[in-house]
Amino acid sequence: MEKKVALITGIGGQDGSYLAELLLKKGYIVRGIIRRASWPNTKRIDHLNIERSKESAVAPFFIRYADLSDAISIRAVLEEFKPDEIYNLASQSHVGISFKCPESTLNFNALGPLRILDAIRDMKLDCKYYQASSSEMFGISPPPQNEETPMLPQSPYGIAKLAAFHTTKMYRNAYGIFASNGILFNHESPRRGLNFVTKKITRGIADIIVGNKKKIVLGNLDAKRDWGFSKEYVEAMWKILQHDKPDDFVISTKETHTVREFVEEGFNLMGLDWKNFVEVSDMYKRPAEVPVLLGDSSKAEKVLGWKPKTKFKELVHMMVAYDLKERMEQLGYLPIEPNVKKSDEFYIEKGRELAKKLKKHKWQIELDGTSPFLQERKKNL
């Protein structure tokens, strides 16, 4: 039996890397595209052994440079790979940044999917297409939000994703393309990008614990989001394309938590009061806010048999543990042991040990450099 070929756009992101791992385990030939950058942006997929010497039609995995703003490059990879399944995960993925870069956000997030879908139509490719849609499309619609909820986006990002959502449906209905939307609510992981609020919190906690910084500066602590685990959400993507007909599905946990709760849970793991380490700044508040996102994924549960397993506290726990491990190894608090796997709880406990050195009500590095963290660091380096 011939192996299926999957093309993943945005394969360098957290979702792309988890999806590549999943599909390789399922026996797919996996191809990915990334944008060219002057600094390598393949950290999340380097472990999949990208070697140019192994690039051949039967190699399990390799990547190409291409860009959703460049229709020629898109067509070139489609002609080369002739994929059975296309997972379009590439985008300008930060809602806040979309207010600063609205034109490029619409170019990548709205016109990019159009370029792919129109190439599929024009080339008459026999393939399935998955569009990474977003809960941000719902905007200010009251929760819970499902496939029938009116969409009232409040950002250039949400507007662009909504355009791509409808473009996908139009190409499905007008041209008979197997094109489906996964309307994914917020999903996080240790591989989350550094400027997303969840990663900013967990990385910030790790930096505070090892003495790299004094505080975390955040925006709207009252925003409520439905947070799931990226590794589980990519399984839903795959299930959507294995369904017998193209359709649209909300993927969520059916739970909502505030940014404040995320912060509190992270600091609680260290035995610390978050109020001593967090500041709020209007600089990080958006011109138009989305107050509550809460997904109703009943359709995915019923039709696809998909359910999330990882709960909110587990997600925070794994992200804090990952960032503690990385920071403590970087600064010599722990040895780097590539072939040794330790539990998340091991790193949480090590973080708690360092956290005990923090003052209860304030934290300040003295001008003479006598901070207990600096002393600890000097001792370990």
Q: Your description of this structure?
A:
This protein has about 375 residues and is α/β, with parallel strands linked by helices. The chain has a domain at about 5-190 and about 225-250: NAD(P)-binding Rossmann-like Domain (Rossmann fold, 3-Layer(aba) Sandwich). Helices cover about 40% and strands about 15% of the residues. The protein has 12 helices and 13 strands. It has helices at about 15-25, 70-80, 95-100, 100-125, 155-175, 195-210, 230-240, 260-270, 300-305, 310-330, 345-355, 370-380, and strands at about 5-10, 30-35, 60-65, 85-90, 130-135, 180-185, 185-190, 215-220, 225, 230, 250, 255-260, 280. The strands form 4 sheets. A 7-stranded parallel beta sheet has the order 3-2-1-4-5-6-11, sandwiched between helices. The chain has a two-stranded parallel sheet with strand order 7-10. The chain has a two-stranded parallel sheet with strand order 8-13. Strand 5, helix 5 and strand 6 (about 180-185) form a beta-alpha-beta unit. The chain starts with a strand and ends with a helix. Mean pLDDT is about 90; it is low at about 360-370.
List the helices and strands and how they pair.
Blueprint: E1 5-9, H1 14-25, E2 29-34, E3 61-65, H2 71-81, E4 85-88, H3 95-100, H4 102-123, E5 128-134, H5 156-175, E6 178-184, E7 187-188, H6 197-210, E8 216-218, E9 224-225, E10 228-229, H7 230-242, E11 248-251, E12 257-258, H8 259-269, E13 278-280, H9 298-304, H10 312-330, H11 344-355, H12 372-380
Parallel strand pairs: 1-2, 1-4, 2-3, 4-5, 5-6, 6-11, 7-10, 8-13
Antiparallel strand pairs: 9-12
Helix pairs in contact: 1-7, 2-4, 4-5, 6-8, 6-10, 8-10, 10-11
